[in-house]
C-alpha cells in the first residue's frame, strides 16, 4: 500500500503488519466529510493488502474524535426537505463503518482521550475500543458520549445499532435517550469499550495489545471475525436505512437548528440550555 499520499486530516504509518492512522484535525479534532473521504481512500488500500493484520485508528493530543463537524451539521439542518430530491438510503458514516467491520484485519479504535457523538459511533464499528483513562496533562476530562438527543437529533452513524447489540434494549435506551458524557470507567462497565488503560502507560499498553493481535494466526482471526459477523450483523443495512429516515426530520427541525446554532455561538456546556418546542 502507498504510504506517501498527501492526506490533510489523517497521518498514516506502517510498522510490519500493523497500519496506524492518526486523525489529525486541530484544533477541534472533529469528524468531517473530507476526513471520511481520506479514510475511505486508505481503506481501499488496506482491503487489497493481505499483509495488513491489524488496523489502528487513534487521535491527537488527548482527543480521539470529538463529534461530527457541527458547522456541516448546521448547514444540513437548514435544508428544506420538501425541496430535497434525493435522500441517501444510508449515510457516508454508515458506509465507512461497514467497510471497517468487513476488513480482514483486526481493527482497533485507540481512543486516546475525549470522544463523542459521531466519533463514538465511528469507534463502535471497530473490533476493539482501547480507551485511555483520564490523566495528568489532559486539557479536558476524558469522556465517552452519544449526546445527539441533547442537540435535538437522533444518532445517524450506526450508534443505535451497535448500542442495542452491545448493551441490550434497556441500557441502549438509557444511554441514547440521556445522551450523557460518561467517564471511561462507566463506558467500560457498560461494555461500550473493550479495555481501559491508565493515561500514563496508554501508548505502551495499546502497543502491547496490537502486537499480540498481529502475532496471532491471521486465518484463524479472520475466521472468527466472519463467524461473529454472521451471527450478529444480519439486518444491519435495513437498520441503517431506517436510521437515516429518523435522522433527516430531526436534523431539519427547528429544535435541532436552535441547538446547533446555540452551541456554535457559545460552545460552553454550562451555558448551553436550548428550550425545545417539539418543532
TrEMBL record:
Keyword match Lipid metabolism: no
InterPro entries in the record: ClpP/crotonase-like_dom_sf, Enoyl-CoA_hydra/iso
A biological-process GO annotation: fatty acid beta-oxidation
GO molecular function: isomerase activity
Source organism, top-level taxon: Bacteria
Assigned protein family: Belongs to the enoyl-CoA hydratase/isomerase family.
This protein's name: Enoyl-CoA hydratase/isomerase family protein
Protein species of origin: Halioglobus maricola
